[in-house]
């Protein structure tokens, strides 16, 4: 049986290889890694700016909801945070951790409620509105302000991490609940988000 | 059916009832019956209503506001970041009077006392209270820091009075202030990278200034803040390290912030101390008392007296210079010149390996008298004839391999190619676990290439005592000389 790689996978393979080679070259130029991490930081800032622009341009665009991707998103967020703090140690008390997760989850659930869900054929789709954009901006601001106000101390880093985790989990679980509620409705194009009028 | 969405302009297929781009209901949908089935109420018009209702808006707003308020409360309640750089960027006079230190109450208007009752995990109900602040002044190097004297207990001074340890046993915290020469002329960046590796926390937070840097990291259950300031154009290194339980971060961070804010080097202090000492020793000394180094404010006169400061030993000789020729150092089967000389602490004892079961005539060892076993401090000098194809890099590799294979938890903290006494050298700093106990040990090795002979200078210390005693290795490297 011939082994073939689809053009899509080939493209990602090439991109991944190029990134690894570039990282290797940067490490050869500066073995301390300072140059590599500086460039990674700049790329991160550029991607952050790009993500803001993308969100502003596409938040109204309908996207397919998948229970698996929502669940995986939540699980990955919890897993990564857990791994990070299991290795690095969390400089927060258990109460502070719970409160930070709860704060993030409240915003996350609120954000999930701003999605406008509708059924299209066999799919559940969601699209954003101005509330969606506003809560997204607020959540972004919340984590950035927390990081700035905390002054990059281990406490602030941990706080922002747990806030982010709570937000991801709250949003995913909120959307999951609404997804299953939508699937339970009669098979038709019905909004399960807004009020009927 | 329109070919394009009238709302967003997206291209549509013939059977679509909803625009998958914007979610809008398509005008002219020809399947109203299907939509009607969806509604169990006749009053409910079967259509996609993308209206964000008032009730939902209130719910979303409530959740978001509550979440943001809770996050804001956590930020406000949480500790503030330590921020200020050390005050000194000026040149400091050379050490003038290496004998005195003092602990005095602070003399300037400063923040009110910090009193926080947030005990660290596992430390019982002990409150972390910092009401009585005092200043520690090292007159030899002109280092000053304010610290809560009711929390930390000052420890006896080391023989060379290079700094001091402070311990708060009840709350599991400690800090130290030490100064030493930058014998290897390491840059600020090199020192910082070594500190990050030394602590072993890749997520350490680093802050820098023109002549200082700071590393905040976690190690086990502790938070470690290490602040280093350079003076005399980078030739002197002043270290402050504060360690406290992570669980008590909220209580400690305001205390730590004040401590690092007051940690500074004042180049006038050693000069004033020397002047005061000279004036006191002079027969024509005036009867009036010398100007106090740190004048007291009226408020301080009513304050409780600071804890008594143990005086450093009055030994006039802190360092002794040894000569390997007098001690009988020789390299077997080598007739060339072999000789090394350096200053080691005067209180350390020479231990000749020729008295042991396996005599090594090419080794000279000095040991600190403060402890024994794995806890001992020692510095060892070894001379070896150069092999036919030996290079400095190969010798360094051999040292690293030997330790990596023979010890647990081996870690290379730093490796630097430099010059020692104008000879090419490689200086390694390594960490590993002891053979008899899991306690971490530290070993600094300088491998010096003098042509026909390689000299290995090894400084060993328990990791817990390394920072406070690393000035010994710096002094040896600074004063070392070889026979020509």
Could you characterize what this model shows?
The complex is a heterodimer of chains A (197) and B (484). The termini of chain A are far apart. Chain A folds into two domains: 1-58; 62-197, no CATH class. Residues 188-197 of chain A have low confidence and may be disordered. Chain A has 197 residues and is mainly alpha-helical. In chain A, strand 2 (116-120) and strand 3 (123-127) form a beta hairpin. Chain A has a three-stranded antiparallel sheet. The longest helix of chain A is centred in the C-terminal third of the chain and has 31 residues, at 154-184. Chain A contains six helices and three strands; from the N terminus they run H-H-E-H-H-E-E-H-H. Chain A is 72% helix and 7% strand. Chain B is α+β, with helices and mostly antiparallel strands and 484 residues long. Chain B has two domains: 82-282 and 290-301, Protein Transport Mog1p, Chain A (3-Layer(aba) Sandwich), CATH 3.40.1000.10; 319-482, Protein Transport Mog1p, Chain A (3-Layer(aba) Sandwich), CATH 3.40.1000.10. Helix content of chain B is 22%, strand content 30%. Chain B has helices at residues 32-38, 54-77, 188-199, 249-262, 268-281, 298-301, 392-406, 463-479; strands spanning 101-104, 114-116, 128-130, 133-138, 143-148, 153-154, 163-168, 173-181, 205-208, 212-219, 222-231, 236-245, 264-265, 319-323, 340-345, 349-352, 363-367, 378-385, 408-420, 423-433, 440-449, 453-462, 481-482. In chain B, the strands form five sheets. Chain B has a seven-stranded antiparallel sheet with strand order 6-7-8-12-11-10-9, sandwiched between helices. A seven-stranded antiparallel sheet of chain B has the order 16-17-18-22-21-20-19. Chain B has a four-stranded antiparallel sheet with strand order 1-4-5-13. The longest helix of chain B has 24 residues, at 54-77. The N and C termini of chain B lie far apart (99 Å). The model of chain B is unreliable at 29-49, 80-125 and 284-316 (pLDDT under 50).
């Amino acid at each position: 049986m011939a082994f073939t790689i689809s053009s899509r996978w080939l493209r990602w393979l090439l991109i991944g290889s190029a990134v690894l080679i570039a990282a290797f070259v940067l490490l050869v130029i500066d073995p301390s890694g300072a140059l590599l991490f500086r460039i990674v930081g700049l790329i991160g800032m550029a991607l952050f700016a790009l993500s803001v622009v993308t969100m502003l341009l596409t938040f109204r665009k309908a996207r397919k909801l998948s229970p698996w991707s929502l669940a995986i998103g939540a699980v990955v967020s919890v897993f990564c945070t857990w791994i990070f703090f299991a290795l690095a140690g969390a400089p927060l008390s258990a109460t502070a951790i719970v409160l930070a997760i709860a704060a993030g989850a409240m915003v996350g659930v609120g954000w999930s409620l701003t999605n406008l869900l509708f059924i299209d054929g066999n799919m559940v789709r969601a699209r954003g509105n101005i509330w969606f954009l506003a809560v997204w901006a607020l959540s972004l601001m919340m984590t950035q302000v927390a990081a700035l106000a905390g002054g990059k101390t281990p406490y602030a880093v941990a706080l922002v991490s747990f806030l982010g985790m709570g937000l991801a989990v709250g949003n995913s679980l909120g959307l999951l609940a609404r997804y299953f509620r939508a699937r339970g409705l009669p098979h038709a194009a019905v909004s399960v988000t807004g009020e009927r009028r | 059916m329109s070919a394009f969405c009238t709302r967003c302009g997206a291209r549509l297929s013939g059977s679509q009832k909803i625009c998958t781009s914007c979610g809008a209901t398509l005008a002219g949908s020809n399947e109203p019956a299907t939509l009607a089935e969806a509604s169990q109420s006749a009053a409910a018009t079967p259509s996609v209503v993308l209206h964000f209702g008032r009730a939902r808006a209130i719910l979303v707003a409530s959740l978001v506001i509550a979440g943001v308020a809770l996050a804001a409360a956590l930020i406000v309640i949480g500790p503030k970041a330590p921020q200020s750089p050390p005050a000194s960027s000026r040149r400091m006079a050379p050490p003038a009077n290496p004998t005195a230190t003092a602990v005095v109450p602070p003399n300037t208007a400063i923040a009110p006392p910090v009193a926080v009752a947030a005990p660290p995990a596992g430390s019982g109900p002990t409150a972390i209270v910092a009401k009585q602040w005092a200043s520690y002044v090292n007159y030899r190097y002109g280092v000053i820091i304010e610290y809560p004297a009711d929390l930390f207990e000052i420890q006896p001074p080391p023989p060379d009075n290079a700094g001091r340890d402070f311990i708060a046993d009840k709350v599991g915290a400690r800090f130290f202030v030490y100064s030493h020469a930058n014998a290897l002329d390491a840059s600020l960046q090199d020192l910082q990278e070594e500190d990050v590796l030394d602590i072993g926390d890749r997520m350490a937070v680093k802050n820098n200034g023109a002549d200082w840097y700071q590393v905040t990291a976690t190690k086990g259950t502790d938070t470690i803040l290490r602040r280093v300031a350079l003076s005399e154009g980078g030739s002197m290194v002043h270290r402050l390290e504060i360690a406290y339980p992570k669980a008590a971060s909220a209580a400690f961070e305001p205390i730590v912030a004040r401590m690092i804010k007051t940690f500074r080097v004042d180049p006038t202090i050693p000069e004033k101390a020397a002047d005061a000492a000279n004036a006191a020793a002079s027969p024509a000394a005036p009867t009036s008392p010398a100007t106090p180094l740190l004048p007291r404010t009226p408020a301080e006169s009513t304050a409780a007296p600071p804890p008594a400061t143990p005086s450093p030993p009055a030994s006039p000789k802190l360092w002794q210079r040894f000569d390997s020729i007098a001690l009988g150092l020789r390299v077997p089967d080598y007739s060339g010149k072999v000789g090394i000389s350096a200053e080691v602490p005067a209180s350390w004892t020479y231990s000749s390996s020729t008295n042991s079961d396996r005599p090594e005539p090419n080794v000279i060892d000095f040991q600190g008298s403060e402890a024994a076993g794995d806890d001992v401090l020692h510095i060892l000098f070894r001379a070896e004839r150069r092999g036919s194809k030996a290079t400095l890099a190969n010798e360094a590799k051999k040292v690293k391999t030997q330790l990596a294979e023979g010890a647990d938890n081996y870690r290379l903290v730093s490796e630097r190619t430099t010059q020692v006494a104008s000879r090419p050298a490689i200086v390694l700093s390594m960490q590993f676990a002891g053979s008899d106990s899991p306690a971490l040990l530290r070993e600094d090795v300088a491998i010096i290439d003098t042509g026909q002979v390689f000299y290995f200078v090894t400084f060993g210390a328990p990791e817990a005592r390394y920072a406070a005693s690393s000035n010994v290795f710096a002094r040896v490297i600074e004063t070392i000389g070889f026979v020509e």
